[in-house]
């Protein structure tokens, strides 16, 4: 018989044993099955005699609560007490148990042990001097409080002491992965434990030494620095010596690998954090960077003297970056900026074909503005569509909108634009209405009735019907062939002189308009937006042409960087680009759209959780504008909500489409087309890649086979037969014109849908802005139903530049819109 040392609180009444155990079998293997009818009477009787029952009372309470029944699967869960011995060592499983104290009873009282919920004691380190009764709540017995005489308690193994002991033992045998969970619980639940500082310090020190022995120097140094911050008095000399030695080793590796930026950051952080500690490695590598910077500066001066200004710029920037305080380095950079200004532009997409009017290729549109001007250039958005500027002078439209006049004033233009001939421009505009011409545009041909000239400096266009914005019909790139030069000859301020996989170099053609106008603009392709941001902050590039919204938000806090938003958004969509039989079916395209979690991709992958006004999922092909009253959103119908992510609906539509195609094939007595893998193409930039990888993974959940196709550098549309859908971002800045460029039979989507065709024709017959807007909203509806394209989202793009560059401007449609006014200071 166990000694009489546990007493049940009489306030707790016994309850009948349930016939079914709700939490499963918890008896030892081979135990007799208990039922309520057989045992309630004896349980109640035994509970009255509890003073003589010892630990058996605990078992009885289990029975009363319905915790004991047959079974072996969960027998170990009953081990919350025993009449002899000690509990088994659970190892890491201890952390899976409810926090508890282990109470051990004296041999005189019958021995045994019990797991109790944490005891509320003023001193949880010793039980000496305790008298009276100890109140105990045993694990596994809810709503029961037991009492035990303090004189029957031999010792208590407190929960925090067990955690401390487990941690120390694992540290001693270098099991740091095993020690960490115990240490974490101690830090979380017992932050004021007296020995915690020493235990945590020992853990960091020993783990750092162990990692260093395995050549994990970066991790080892990080742990030593954390130890120094946490406990500055711990092994002071040895700790600083270890930090010094590891820093020296890592600095050497970084410099040897050419990672000077990382080495500088590391040295700067160490110097700031351990100022006054006289670390030898800090002094050593400071001197090394001074030597390297001085060497770069001497090389820059030599390059300047031989008029190799490009190399001189690079070396001088390196010198400043290596040692900003180096005497004369910044002055040399300013001198080079004065002698031969250069600007380095980081780009996510490299340009190959240059066309400032290309609405589907960001890079082509951006860099094309450096080489070519446009007959009518968009300068922004107003309350009635785009605001256009006639390259060669002024324009005037009659009150009835049936007459559109162009007046030439070329005298103030730079060459070759000042050589313009009104008759040549007349022919170029007339070609826009000739079906056999390469520049033929059906919308202009439908609008134009006749043309004439009132002398060499005035062209008059008579329209068939009133047109709300005739200037938008004449966005023609102007190249040198307009002035008797070669086809493709530049008419802007710059020419492209070098192109490789990483860099494209543009050189000023004529004399600079202002003294500090850049003589060269060098575009450097960066692998990701993050890399571009890092290079901008380090001074390796001066301008970054495109930012993720999240990067733009972070850069705005930098004192050295300016961030501005482009005033016009880009619209992102998937465009069918093959004769894939399934993609050709509207039902299947609906399934694809329902199968894309556009909200999640936009907010999670692209925006990285940042709330950016204007960045939103869209339901149609036109921009929604930044705000509800944004004039850029005049073509967007806000009453049409984007389709939600419904994978179950998507699967149903895939099956429905398959049945429809099977039935159609049977009626036509043909074989049903084979479901080949979907080839999804995307431009070679990080944003497009991120979006398409997410789309692929979601389509695969529909049991679709998807292949990603990365387009060649500079391309935005796949070659025929290489892809079925293409991810693209479009500059739909004038929907009244761009609708046909996107949706027409000769547009990007090459839609032959009768409703889309009807909507385009009705749009082009609009006589005023009210009609134009109503018909654009109707076209939005047709697109949302027929899905010639799969609309994804709208993004507000940003650009960033170092404050030393002036004249870039704000509210610019294109990065190089004011390139002739850029100044380096």
TrEMBL record:
GO process annotations (BP): peptide transport
Family annotation (InterPro entries): SBP_5, SBP_5_dom
Record organism: Crateriforma conspicua
Gene3D superfamilies: Dipeptide-binding Protein, Domain 3 (3.10.105.10), Periplasmic binding protein-like II (3.40.190.10)
One Pfam family in the UniProt entry: SBP_bac_5
UniProt GO MF annotations: peptide transmembrane transporter activity
Domain Solute-binding protein family: 523-730
UniProt-recorded name of the protein: Extracellular solute-binding protein
């Amino acid at each position: 018989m166990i000694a009489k040392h546990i007493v049940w609180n009489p306030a707790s009444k016994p309850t009948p044993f349930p016939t079914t155990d709700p939490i499963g079998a918890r008896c030892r293997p081979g135990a007799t099955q208990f039922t309520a009818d057989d045992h309630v009477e004896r349980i109640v009787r035994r509970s009255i005699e509890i003073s003589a029952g010892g630990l058996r009372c605990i078992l009885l309470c289990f029975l009363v609560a319905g915790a004991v029944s047959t079974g072996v699967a969960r027998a170990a869960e009953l081990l919350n007490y025993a009449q002899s011995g000690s509990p088994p060592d659970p190892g890491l499983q201890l952390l899976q148990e409810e926090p508890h104290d282990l109470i051990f009873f004296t041999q005189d009282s019958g021995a045994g042990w019990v797991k109790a919920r944490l005891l509320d004691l003023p001193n949880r380190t010793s039980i000496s001097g305790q008298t009276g009764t100890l109140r105990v709540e045993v694990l596994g017995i809810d709503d029961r409080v037991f009492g035990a005489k303090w004189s029957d308690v031999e010792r208590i193994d407190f929960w925090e002491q067990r955690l401390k002991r487990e941690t120390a033992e694992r540290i001693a045998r270098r099991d740091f992965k095993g020690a960490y969970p115990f240490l974490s619980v101690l830090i979380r639940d017992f932050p004021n434990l007296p020995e915690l500082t020493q235990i945590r310090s020992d853990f960091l020190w020993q783990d750092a030494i162990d990692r260093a022995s395995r050549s994990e120097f970066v991790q080892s140094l990080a742990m030593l620095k954390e130890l120094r911050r946490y406990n500055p008095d711990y092994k002071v000399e040895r700790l600083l010596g270890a930090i010094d030695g590891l820093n020296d080793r890592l600095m050497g590796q970084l410099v040897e690998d050419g990672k000077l930026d990382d080495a500088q950051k590391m040295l700067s952080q160490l110097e700031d954090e351990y100022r006054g500690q006289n670390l030898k490695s800090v002094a050593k590598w400071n001197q090394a960077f001074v030597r390297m910077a001085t060497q770069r500066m001497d090389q820059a001066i030599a390059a300047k003297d031989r008029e190799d200004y490009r190399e001189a710029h690079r070396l001088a920037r390196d010198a400043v970056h290596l040692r900003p305080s180096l005497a004369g380095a910044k002055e040399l950079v300013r001198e080079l900026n004065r002698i031969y200004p250069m600007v380095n532009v980081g780009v996510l997409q490299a340009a190959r074909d240059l066309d400032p009017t290309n609405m589907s290729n960001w890079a082509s549109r951006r860099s094309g503005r450096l080489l070519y001007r446009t007959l009518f250039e968009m300068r922004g958005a107003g309350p009635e569509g785009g605001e256009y500027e006639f390259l060669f002078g002024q324009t005037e439209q009659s009150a009835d909108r049936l007459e559109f006049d162009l007046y030439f004033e070329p005298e103030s233009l730079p060459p070759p634009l000042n050589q313009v001939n009104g008759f040549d421009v007349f022919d170029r505009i007339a070609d826009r209405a000739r079906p056999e011409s390469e520049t033929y545009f059906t919308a202009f041909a439908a609008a134009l009735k006749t043309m004439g000239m009132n002398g060499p400096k005035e062209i008059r266009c008579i329209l068939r019907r009133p047109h709300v914005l005739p200037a938008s019909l004449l966005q023609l790139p102007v190249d040198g062939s307009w002035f008797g030069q070669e086809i493709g000859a530049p008419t802007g301020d710059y020419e492209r002189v070098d192109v490789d996989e990483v860099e494209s170099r543009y050189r000023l053609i004529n004399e600079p308009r202002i003294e500090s106008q850049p003589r060269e603009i060098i575009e450097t392709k960066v692998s990701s937006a993050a890399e571009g941001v890092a290079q901008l902050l380090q001074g390796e590039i001066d301008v970054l042409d495109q930012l993720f919204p999240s990067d733009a938000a972070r850069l705005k806090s930098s004192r050295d960087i300016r961030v501005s938003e482009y005033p016009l958004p880009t619209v992102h969509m998937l465009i069918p680009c093959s004769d894939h039989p399934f993609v050709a079916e509207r039902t299947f395209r609906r399934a694809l759209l329902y199968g894309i979690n556009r909200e999640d991709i936009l907010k999670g992958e692209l925006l990285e959780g940042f709330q950016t006004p204007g960045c939103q999922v869209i339901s149609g092909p036109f921009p929604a504008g930044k705000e509800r009253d944004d004039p850029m959103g005049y073509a967007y119908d806000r009453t049409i909500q984007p389709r939600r992510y419904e994978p179950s609906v998507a699967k149903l539509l895939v099956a429905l489409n398959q049945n429809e195609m099977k039935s159609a094939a049977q009626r036509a007595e043909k074989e049903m087309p084979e479901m080949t893998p979907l080839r999804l193409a995307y431009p070679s930039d990080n944003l497009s890649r991120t979006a398409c990888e997410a789309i692929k993974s979601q389509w695969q959940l529909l049991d679709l086979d998807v292949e990603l196709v990365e387009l060649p550098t500079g391309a935005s549309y796949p070659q025929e037969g290489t892809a079925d859908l293409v991810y693209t971002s479009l500059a739909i800045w004038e929907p009244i014109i761009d609708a046909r460029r996107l949706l027409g039979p000769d547009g990007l989507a090459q839609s032959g849908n009768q409703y889309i065709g009807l909507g385009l024709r009705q749009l082009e017959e609009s006589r005023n802005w009210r009609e134009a807007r109503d018909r654009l909203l109707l076209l939005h509806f047709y697109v949302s139903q027929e899905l010639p394209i799969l609309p994804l989202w709208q993004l507000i793009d940003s650009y960033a530049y170092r404050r030393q560059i002036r004249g870039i401007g704000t509210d610019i449609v294109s990065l190089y819109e004011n390139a002739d006014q850029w100044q380096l200071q």
